[in-house]
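Subgroup meeting minutes
Present: P.N., E.W., G.H.
Scribe: E.W.

1. P.N. recapped why we're keeping a running log of single-chain structure predictions: easier to compare across weeks, and new members can see raw inputs and outputs side by side.
2. G.H. added today's entry (100 aa).
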Amino acid sequence: MTSQPTASADRSARLNMRIAPDALELLREAAAAQQQDVTSFVLGAAMAQARSVLMEERVMFLTAREVAQVDEALEREPHVIPELAALIREVKGRAPVRAV
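Output recorded in log:
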């Protein structure tokens, strides 16, 4: 994954924000130090942070012991849990709930 959007990317969406003048000046200085315009600098930093946040949310790191426990659980013969089966039947019988 790259931290910068590609030049060919569709750039029709907009994001506007209000920030303090000193924050804008800091961003301008940092962008200039990286030979980037402010938009590219801010977008690159925001995209990197977004990827980091989503990686932490989506990726699970397991110890060797935990991997062995998961593997063992997956290898076990499946069995019916009556309460869970009843709940599934109950939910299947309900009308679908529509999001508003």
